[in-house]
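User: Show me an example of a complex going from sequences to structure tokens.

Assistant: Sure. Here are the input components:
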Amino acid sequence: MINPRRYPLLATIAIFVIAYAICYVQFPYMLSTRVAGNLLTDNAYLGIVAVGMTVVILSGGIDLSVGAVIAFSGVFIAVMLRDTGLHPVLVFALLLALTTAFGAAMGALIHRLGMPPFIVTLAGMFLARGVAYMLTIDSVAIDHPFFDTLQSTYWLMPGKGRLTLIGVIMLLAFVVGHVVAHRTRFGANVFALGGGQQTARLMGSRVGRTTVMIYAFSGLMAGLGGIVFALYTGSGYPLATVGTELTAIATVVIGGTLLSGGAGYVFGTLFGVLTMGLIQTYIVFDGTLSSWWTKIAIGVLLLAFIVLQKALLRLGTPRASALG
Amino acid sequence: MKKSLALSLALLGFSATASAAQVVGFSQIGSESGWRAAETTITRKQAEQRGIDLKFSDAQQRQENQIAALRSFIAQGVDAILLAPVVATGWDNVLKEAKESEIPVILLDRQIDAPKDLYMTAVGADSVHEGEVAGQWLVDKVAGKPCNVVELQGTTGSSVAIERKQGFEKAIADHPNLKIVRSQTGDFTRSGGKEVMESFIRAENGGRDICALFSHNDDMAIGAIQAMKEAGLHPGKEILTISIDAVPDYFKAMANGDANATVELTPNMAGPAFDALEAYWKDGTQPPKFIQTDSKLYTQSDDPEGEYQRRKDLGY
Amino acid sequence: MMPAGVKRVLPQLITLAVLVALVSAVFPDFLQLHYSDGRLIGPVIDVLKRGAPVALLAIGMTLVVATGGIDLSVGTVMAITGAVAAAAIVAGHGLLWALGLALAAGLCAGLFSGCLIAFLGIQPIVATLILMISGRGIAQLITEGRILTFNLPAFSFLGSGHLLGIPVPVWLWLAAATLTVVVVRRTALGLLIEAVGINRRASALTGINARVILLAVYMISGLCAALAGIVTTADIRGADANNAGLWLELDAILATVIGGNSLLGGRFSIPAAVIGALIIQTINTGILLAGFPTEYNLVIKAALVVAILVLQSPLLAGDLKRVAARLTRLRHPAPATKKERASP
């Protein structure tokens, strides 16, 4: 017997499989390791920030700063590698420390001042992109032998598909996110917080500490996503990834996590990310949509996925819906 | 079983594209301006005239979408790729993949920071040169008289804005009579240009201290012209107005005497690109690495009304 | 004693005053006004006029936020309504048709989001995100990606005309805000909205039809966005579907929150949200007038926003009160000891 709490996750996976099947019927080449490898590589940065976003949303919060933090990360790495002799690994460590501290600071503001996360992280978004501009307004290419090695690391799959390093990092991020959210005390606190701060207090968890840790984790993931994005593009650009936070939120929701917090699965988000990637790939394969129809199609497909998910859940739990 | 299925399908897909018309993938930045819409329209028309099957992908202003689109084009095995890059850096990896799959890539609008062997050619204007042409016109026009210039910049961080600024500054560098007194971003939009110009007018003694406006694109200049007129100033006469792009509405302003000059950036980048591709497919001719389009200067003596009529239906 | 209405907006007014002083420090002529050609001219008037779109959006956003929702689609709805108005004018229909169609488009957009939220139970942020993405496509479909330029002085008047020396957009947001406040406060609508925002289930039990209320607030928000779209389009005499209202939804939400409205829903104040919009516009105009390099724009805005949020935060206010109380106690020890004796 399947646990009813897993229904949203199963619905997400089912919809992804159905969608892929539809794509396959129309464009048989979609079912190649090449396209599958691309799906992982192209969405690696998105998947990583979505892991952080899932944890934030599970706690009932939201983090709008991630897109700007990715842009800042790319610029920071590029400028540091250009202007100082530091080794990339050291730069990565510095960056992760910075973005984690940045996230923690936002978490502290949210808890300490009782301000809504939406607004604090919105200010964080302005700040992160603003600092990126101050570092450089131009795009900066990254040129470092160690960096190049990381960029060109991949495993060849049968059928010429490439499983890249950054794709693997994303999958690992999901494993780590899963363990953190579903197997640790911190994760239990996150769920408790999402269920309502009152409950969390009753359960004896320290709300303040947990809030700081949640946004620190999201900052860490955004920093890691920034490293992966820098590896993906090989450059830093202050105008990069505008609006990525909204895409990440959408993937989390498609993945079956409730925006009100307290219910969801980290692995659901993985399928949310892959579904988003599938929509993009399908539109490129089709290749006939104009700029405007592309936007309309993305919105309509998103709506279709969400409505389908709701319908599947209602079918799966007739009694629960009657009660609710 | 599954593997061999995928493989045979891949072969099928490949042979299908090889037998039909040439397939060209076009990764466009997005649709952020009228100029961009015109470029897309013209590219589609050019492809249709030449019997090329154009696969269009709109990246909505995001490099990551462009890279993903390029990868999809490569996976589909298109015959060539047109790329209008949103930014100058960060293309090395995906271009290497295209090269390994022996798919020629042609860049539209601008050049990029990548080894030249990774792409076939770049068709575009030199943005620094455009800024220089604009600056030179102003230098000649004021002929040594002191002149305070205000500048409307494009989106902060975009390479076009950075380069047009550079070129303009280069042109006026040796002329101490010309001075940029205010410079702010209007995000390449009409409303941005209008709002920023209003603040310039307030800050510079009701606009009386401004002698010329240099705008990084025509849309912002059109907004700025409205702001000047509403403040009771006479653009084109009291305040010299020079801008870049040559879109139809700006010619209308020139015809009305509200604007002085513009530097053309043609939206027909696809024509020369397809020419180069067809020559390459025919006998393997390699084009030069940069096909520079003409940055022609239009002033009020170049029949602005006629230019407006000629351009208004081009999809701007 | 101050009337309750003024007391509610006092923190926002103080913030605005401090900000104006700050901008005057870097740009001394900020408060200068003069009268010529039958109109008032000066940076302050610019703030009032340029703040119109966000102020209009903030009116609708406040009602949406009061129900515990959020509307990310308003920027896009501006683009749609602007495109509809311009297309109607270009097609040769008159001013009334253009206005009517644009407002109808705004209402439809609000109805769409409202239905997704009220009937399908989709969370507001996602439902309006869908419209935010696809709506811009619809707007571009209407204009085909071009800037639709038109020439209709009666319509342009709404964006750049003057009435009694004041720009028309200022009258528009003043009228819209006053009208909304009157409707919301003179009828039970305001209470119903707050009830839905505080506890939707409980409000349903008391007989409130939460679905109708939700539909109503998103449609009002759509209507406000339509007005903002009309002002923007009329101002530049053209519909720029690509850029009109781009990211303005974030400014509108920020204005609402600076106005002291809780994103969790419940009690709300429209005047405070409108002052919030003016605060944001003062920052924007101040940055333009100050003449800093463009790359500092965002950092300055972020720093000011953070400072405002910190100073206005309810918890900090509690802390300050406690500090103030302790200071009074130090200065007047006698009553304090009495209190201390009483408290344990």
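The lines above are the inputs; the final block is the predicted structure for all three components together. Residues 127-265+299-311 of chain B form a domain with the Rossmann fold fold (CATH 3.40.50.2300).
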